[in-house]
Amino acid sequence: MCRNIKTLHNFAPPATEEEIHASALQFVRKLSGVTHPSKANEPAFAHAVDRVAQAAHELLDSPVAHGPPRDREREAEKARARAKIRYGAPAASRPAS
Prior knowledge:
Blueprint: E1 11-12, H1 17-32, H2 42-61, E2 70-71, H3 72-87
Parallel strand pairs: 1-2
Helix pairs in contact: 1-2
């Protein structure tokens, strides 16, 4: 699950509320071992996600970046290139055998 958590610091434009919430949700899911909590545990789960998101906001607002902000599209291109090396060409673009 945590493979989906992306670096959110030092991007232009800054991380959105949705991105921060999504990473907090993934973190709480991983920590609890639960993807979808039961009805009885939903309030505690939601509270944990909110607290982690709040901590993430504080963390992202605190550090001083020493380099220029990273470009989201450029970082996505680099990730696609790494995936291509790691996994090969996507199935749709592979020639039929």
